[in-house]
């Protein structure tokens, strides 16, 4: 008995026809996540076991053509209630014989915000705060709690400190932290495709938490902000020591599922990062909110820098493999990673909004201001005793090198969002030689690197549909850009040492306390 879709062995009756579990999972995934596919050719692609990477558009059309009916789709609510069935379907999705990998590219995901009233009428809110919609055709929303009336939109601690007023009354005690559990480093994410076929995926509904559980309640959140306000001073760098570092430390103490619980449909590391990055990317301004031809306020520029650091920590905690590490290992990786993430993120956000012109030397700040190296600055006296010309002369060599080895190659390549995630994840886990890394973490990093290579191969094979298999050139250029980020970071180390030796900046302009720079 053969599957009517892909012609491999069928595993029973699914959606009204005889088919394999892989095709059933593909059909279910398409409907429940409201996916839309595009055929790169004439909708006449071969769909069979002979075609290793089948066109998903043509595969879905064949599913419908041979008689699969969406009215037979099981409600997501019943799937969550029936754990054994959910695990069976997840296993089926992982043995997808056509895609070779169960993971479709998230390039085609189309999330549409669902109103709170519609969620109330069409779904169930579980006791743990996880919302599962009853309508199978609705795409589930990451961070759906942001649309709910009983949740405040996340504000970073530094944003609160920036406009804090010293409150009256007794100082509030710090929020109680969860005790970090011990982990045995058994990460399902790192299994190979063959290992995935024998591994059971835990059943859970998709839910991305934008803030730790302690901060969800208005009382505890206000308590945290009141404490931050009491510690606030005019020196933002002191705020980093007194507020931002403890805030990130508390974040790293949270259980692994506090920030991100992954869905029944398994996601690759790059796809997890892509979901987390799209949430992170919301902080960048829209095209119509950008401003230009105004002086750069150095105090606001530094404040935005602090805010970005906390957002990057949240991004890291949305990656399950990172979130399951012991806290001391998280800190080592984060100090190595955030400066590199910062450069890639800023360059990608700038290019998306200002274009890829090599002669355009403008950049974008978090508050939407367009800047360039020749821009006039204000409040520089809070940062340095030197004038603007002297500071620019000190930084000019680094900026020239920055454009030559990083910005220009990045603009020429024009990496996709998925390729950006590949670079970020590669940099995050290139930690084998870092001081303090344990053997267990080193072993994880090696598995991650192997899995990333497999994920990128699958992505390119699906993108090019086997018509342009020579993607080695792009991988080489991606690796070159990642290496350039390391080289830029090394140059910043040197600038940091020179700055400290000659007291160029009043405070630690290079954030040595939050990086792996030598102090």
Blueprint (SSEs and pairs):
Layout: E1 13-14, E2 17-18, H1 21-32, H2 56-65, H3 76-81, H4 83-94, H5 116-122, E3 123-125, E4 131-133, H6 157-162, H7 193-196, E5 207-208, H8 213-216, H9 218-231, H10 236-252, E6 260-261, H11 269-280, E7 296-297, H12 298-317, H13 320-323, H14 327-354, E8 363-364, E9 370-371, E10 377-378, H15 388-413, H16 417-428, H17 439-464, H18 472-502
Parallel strand pairs: 7-10
Antiparallel strand pairs: 1-2, 3-4, 5-6, 8-9
CATH class of the largest domain: Mainly Alpha
Number of strands: 10
Residues in helix, %:
40-55%
Strand-residue fraction? Answer: under 5%
Q: Structural class, please? A: mainly alpha
- Mean pLDDT equals 71
- The poorly predicted ranges are 75-188, 191-222, 228-233
Q: Helical stretch count?
A: 18
Q: By CATH's scheme, which homologous superfamily of the largest domain applies?
A: Retinoid X Receptor
Multimeric status of the protein? single chain
Sketch the topology as an H/E string, one letter per element.
EEHHHHHEEHHEHHHEHEHHHEEEHHHH
CATH topology of the largest domain: Retinoid X Receptor
For the biggest β-sheet, the strand order reads 1-2
Task: Report the sheet with the most strands, covering strand number, pairing sense and barrel closure.
Answer: 2 strands, antiparallel
Cα(first) to Cα(last) distance is 68 Å
What characteristic shape results from the CA principal axes?
elongated
Q: Radius of gyration, Cα only, in angstroms?
A: 25 Å
Please tell me the CATH architecture of the largest domain by its name: Orthogonal Bundle
How many domains would you count in the coordinates? 2
């Amino acid at each position: 008995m053969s599957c009517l879709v892909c012609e491999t062995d069928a595993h029973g009756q699914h959606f009204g026809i005889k088919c394999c579990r892989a095709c059933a999972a593909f059909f279910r995934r398409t409907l429940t996540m409201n996916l839309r596919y595009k055929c790169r050719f004439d909708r006449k692609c071969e769909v069979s076991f002979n075609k290793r990477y089948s066109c998903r558009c043509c595969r879905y059309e064949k599913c419908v053509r041979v008689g699969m009916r969406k009215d037979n789709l099981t409600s997501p609510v019943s799937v969550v209630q029936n754990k054994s069935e959910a695990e069976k379907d997840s296993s089926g999705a992982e043995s997808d014989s056509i895609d070779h990998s169960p993971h479709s590219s998230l390039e085609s995901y189309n999330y549409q915000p669902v109103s709170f009233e519609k969620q109330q009428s069409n779904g169930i809110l579980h006791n743990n705060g996880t919302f599962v919609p009853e309508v199978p055709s609705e795409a589930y929303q990451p961070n759906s709690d942001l649309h709910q009336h009983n949740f405040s939109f996340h504000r970073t601690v530094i944003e609160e400190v920036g406009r804090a007023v010293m409150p009256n009354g007794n100082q509030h005690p710090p929020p109680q932290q969860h005790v970090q559990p011990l982990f045995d480093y058994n990460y399902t994410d790192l299994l190979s495709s063959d290992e995935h076929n024998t591994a059971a995926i835990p059943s859970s509904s998709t839910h991305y938490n934008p803030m730790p559980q302690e901060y969800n309640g208005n009382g505890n959140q206000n308590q945290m902000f009141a404490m931050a306000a009491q510690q606030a001073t005019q020196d933002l760098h002191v705020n980093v020591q007194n507020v931002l570092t403890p805030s990130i430390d508390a974040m790293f103490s949270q259980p692994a599922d506090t920030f991100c619980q992954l869905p029944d449909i398994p996601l690759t590391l790059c796809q997890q990062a892509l979901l987390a990055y799209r949430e992170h990317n919301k902080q960048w301004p829209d095209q119509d909110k950008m401003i230009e031809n105004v002086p750069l306020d150095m105090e606001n520029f530094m404040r935005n820098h602090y805010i970005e650091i906390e957002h990057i920590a949240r991004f890291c905690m949305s990656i399950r493999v990172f979130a399951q590490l012991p806290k001391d290992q998280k800190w080592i990786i984060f100090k190595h990673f955030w400066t590199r993430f910062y450069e890639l993120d800023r360059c990608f956000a700038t290019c998306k909004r200002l274009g890829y012109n090599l002669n355009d030397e403008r950049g974008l700040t978090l508050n939407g201001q367009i800047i360039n190296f020749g821009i006039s600055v204000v409040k520089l006296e809070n940062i340095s005793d030197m004038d603007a010309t002297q500071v620019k002369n000190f930084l000019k060599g680094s900026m020239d090198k920055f454009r030559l080895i990083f910005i220009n190659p990045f603009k020429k390549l024009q990496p996709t969002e998925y390729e950006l995630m590949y670079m970020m994840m590669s940099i995050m886990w290139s930690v084998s030689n870092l001081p303090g890394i344990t053997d267990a973490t080193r072993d994880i990093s090696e598995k991650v690197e192997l899995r990333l290579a497999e994920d990128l191969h699958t992505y390119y094979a699906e993108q090019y549909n086997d018509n342009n298999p020579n993607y080695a050139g792009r991988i080489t250029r991606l690796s070159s850009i990642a290496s350039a980020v390391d080289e830029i970071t090394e140059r910043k180390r040197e600038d940091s040492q020179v700055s400290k030796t000659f007291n160029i900046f009043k405070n630690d302009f290079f954030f040595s306390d939050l990086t792996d720079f030598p102090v």
